[in-house]
Amino acid sequence: MKALITGATGFLGGALTRRLYGMGWHVTALGRNVTKLKNMESEGLRVLSLDLKEKDAMADVCKDQDIVFHCAALPSPWGNFEAFYQANVIGTRNVIRGCEKYKVKRLVHVSTPSLYFGYASRVNVKETDELPEPVSNYSATKILAEQEIDEAFARGLATIAIRPRAIFGPGDTVIFPRLIPRLQSGRLPILGDGENVVDLTYIENVVDALLLCAESPENTLGKKYNISNDEPVKVWKLVERICTELNLPSPTRRISGQTANAAATALEFLYRLIPKQPEPPLTRISVSMMANSTTLDITAAKNELGYKPRVSVDEGFERFMKWWKESMSLRGGL
Hints:
CATH architecture of the domain at 2-174 and 200-232 and 295-313: 3-Layer(aba) Sandwich
Shape: globular
Largest sheet: 7 strands, parallel
Strand content: 15-25%
Strand order of the largest sheet: 3-2-1-4-5-7-12
Helix content: 40-55%
Distance between the termini: 43 Å
Order of helices and strands: EHEHEHEHEEHEEHEEEHEEHEHHEHH
CATH superfamily of the domain at 2-174 and 200-232 and 295-313: NAD(P)-binding Rossmann-like Domain
Number of helices: 12
CATH topology of the domain at 2-174 and 200-232 and 295-313: Rossmann fold
């Protein structure tokens, strides 16, 4: 089986690339991190350094592929709309054009459940639930990217998409690696009542879901599927566990969600006045993530894809912490 993976130098794309290559697939890894691509090439992978915005070049790499896994995206909670639009919408459009031109058998698209959430708690969200107004340029452009996928399906391209929630595990650069420095600084207060719960998804479980999508029955095509570990955890209990593992003091100071949101709103306003608009130390999205409950209903993925999380949050957490400690030790950080 021949597969093209966009975003292969990213967290999820990299994990998928390694899995498929180990299974004997003929994999083409597409990304922009030259160092990681060279490492993959040295391991025997076919690699390409390419920007998805390059329309013709992007189309041509789809030639002779059986399946394209579109994992690439610009996922930051902060940034310029045009940058998100070019990466997430135009990039997806160019991938679709390549799949259509060379009659790729199936396009598996990685979307996001970020498009479900705003600045309040929302639990057991189904794929068919109404979408709120997008709260970030990322979620706004991922909605538009899904529309591109829907239109391609209507034209006859076999598509399927997943919306994986809060991916974590060894190699993560987003979830825990953004949280740990705040804990090390000792300046992170408990936001809200401290009882909110969230879904997480271990990286290899998401890869499992992508493989299921590659071979799923025809009735799944054109659909989107929520993916999580299906075991909500209390955010601040998880924070305590991280602190225990790293011998850090657990947060004790409390700030209401309303107060934190007001502070984040003010910071966002001020940082937009700064040239290049750097990301503020606190945003309304980060407040919402730490103060509100956000969980998904994954019934459809279980029933229609046969998805079942193999690695629990506890086991995944242990694997991440082992990797993190080893990585920090090698860097002289522990």
